[in-house]
Sequence to fold (168 residues):
Amino acid sequence: MKTKPQALVHPIPPLYNEDSRLLILGSFPSPKSREARFFYGHPQNRFWPLLARLLDEAPPQSVEEKATLALSHHIALWDSIASCTIVGASDSSVKDVKPNDLSGILHGSWVAHIACNGALSYTMYMRHLFPATGIEAIRLPSTSPANAAFSMERLAEAWRVILPILDT
Fold:
C-alpha cells in the first residue's frame, strides 16, 4: 500500500534559551519525531548519539536529557520548514513549503551561527530564510538513517566544525 502525501504543520516548538549560540536546523520532523513531539525521535537517527560523542557526554535517552544536552552546550534546535506536503519522512517528496520564522530565536538568544542537518534543510534555509537572516549556514551531512553513505565516524569528522562555535 502506497503512502499518500499529507499536508502537515510543524508540531514542535523551537528549543533554545538566551545562552544559545548555534542553531541546528533540520528540515521537517519525521513521523517518529512528530509522535515523540521532539527533535530526532527516530531510534535509528544518529543525531543524539553523534552530539553526545562530539561533546564527550553520555548519550541522552529521554526528551528532558536531550533538551538538557543541547541547551547546556548552547545549542538551539528547530527546522527550516514550518509546513509542507510530505510522504512519510521522504525529503524528496516535500512540496508546498512554508518556512519557519527564525526571528524569535535570533532575537531571544546569542545565536550567530546556523548549521543545517542535511541537504534539504540547507536548501530550504538558503532559499527561504537566509535572505532574512543574512547568516551563512554550515551544510552538514544528514544524521538520518537514510544517509547510509556516512558512517558514524564520517559524520563525527564532518560535524566537528561546530565545536569551535560552542567553545566561544
Notes: The chain has one domain: 6-163. Residues 6-163 form a domain with the Uracil-DNA Glycosylase, subunit E fold (CATH 3.40.470.10).
